[in-house]
Amino acid sequence: MSTFENASRSELRDIAEKSKWFHAIDFGDFASSGRFPPGSPQNITLFGAMDLLGSIDLKGCRVLDIGSADGLASFGMKELGAREVVSIDSFDIPTYRLARKLLNLETDYRPRVQLKDAVSELGWKQFDVILCAGVIYHMLNPMSAFIECRKLIKDNGLLIMESPISTKFQEPVLALNTELDDFMPEPSTYWVPSKSAMTGMMKLMGFDICATRFLKAPTRFTVLGRAAPPAEVRDRNALLQKVHEIDFCDFEFQWKELAKHSGVSTVSCDIEAFHRDIAAEKEEASFPFQPQPREDAVGSTRWASAGGNFV
Ligand SMILES: C[S@@+](CC[C@H](N)C(=O)[O-])C[C@H]1O[C@@H](n2cnc3c(N)ncnc32)[C@H](O)[C@@H]1O
Fold first, then answer.
1. 26-45 pLDDT tens trace
2. In a domain, 294, yes or no
3. Position 233 in a domain
4. What per-residue string of b and e applies to 205-244 under the rule 16 or more CB within 10 Å gives b?
5. What is the predicted pLDDT for the residue at 262?
């Protein structure tokens, strides 16, 4: 039973007022303050994912939200028709349970589960759709996020990966933040990928790229890929073809291990534009529980960075 089980709505609102929020969430009669300044568009780092999720038919889907924080994306996906939403996060974040209670939704919250442990906790090939937003740069080994997601997702399932990126590099690089001249000042940001590193890591793990979204300020990139047989991954060069044909010499991930597990998704998506630049200040994201800019949001935030990074 959740701590908030017997609380009245006004008691829940009082708790919301005293809470520190990462996401701005529209609860109808009031909204939580997100981490961006009052009056500005909230949750902007999720705008690419929100745009892509609007094109995916989530009905009947089993969905995983990795690094759910306060849960805005989890709750939105549930509202968009997902049959089951599982939310994992390294930490136990009380505002997730509070928001879920305020929205009266049912989701499967698994706090203190890191992505590296998700396969043993949840099993292979369990999900039709996976969202992994704002997580890979907090991982010492960002590539492992793509590996674990390939194990967790059903064949033909859809993965949305989102991260801050550096536009300084055209090459497929993962830049080590602590050695950059213009480093991101967050102590939990270890890596900053380039766009082509994001799409390249997806392709290496057998995701066919379906769409990309670029947010200019802060610079963030969102990639939608479908878990495909390697031969169906578009834009493979000769080396990547060979890599896929001979399997990996690192036993952390091998096609032959993946093939031992069943699970095929029928999730469909209807993406209008393969690529779109997103101008957050001009956009009003349309997504369940995404509030329009408002001055009267309750609560505060401990996350000061407009980059939306988790300090
Ligand atoms: C920057 S926030 C992003 C929150 C949300 N996904 C979004 O995009 O708005 C990162 C969240 O991921 C969680 N996180 C970081 N590393 C993780 C990992 N390896 N496994 C699971 N959760 C992780 C953090 O605790 C935090 O709640």
1. 999 999 999 988 878 899 99
2. no
3. yes
4. bbbbbbbbbbbeebbbbbbbbbbbebeebeebeeeeeebb
5. 98
Pocket test for ligand 1, best of 75, 89, 163 (most atoms within 8 A of CB): 89
Does ligand 1 have an atom closer than 6 angstroms to the CB of 66?
yes
Distance 66 CA to ligand 1 centre (A): 7
Average pLDDT over residues 249-257: 96
Which atom from ligand 1 is nearest to the alpha carbon of 72? 9
Residue 26 Cβ contacting ligand 1 at under 6 Å: no
**Per-residue pLDDT at 292:** 84
Single out the residue of 107, 174, 108 nearest to residue 140, CA to CA: 174
Euclidean distance between the first and the last CA atom of the chain, given in angstroms as a whole number: 30
d(CA 265, CA 241): 24
Residue 234 in contact with residue 24, Cβ under 8 Å?
Answer: no
**Assigned domain for 37 exists:** no
CATH code of residue 204: 3.40.50.150
Q: Which residue carries 């878990």 as its tokens?
A: 227
Average pLDDT, the chain: 93
Are 114 and 132 a contacting pair, CB within 8 Å?
A: no
Residue nearest to ligand 1 atom 5, measured at CA: 68
92 lies in some domain: yes
- Compute the average pLDDT of residues 116-136: 98
- Of all protein residues, the one whose alpha carbon is nearest to atom 15 of ligand 1 is 135
Query: Domains in the chain: how many in total?
Result: 1
Domain encompassing residue 234:
43-282
Q: Is the CB of 139 under 6 A from ligand 1?
A: yes
- Res 37: pLDDT: 83
Q: Is the CB of 44 under 6 A from ligand 1?
A: no
Does 48 contact ligand 1 (Cβ within 6 A)? no
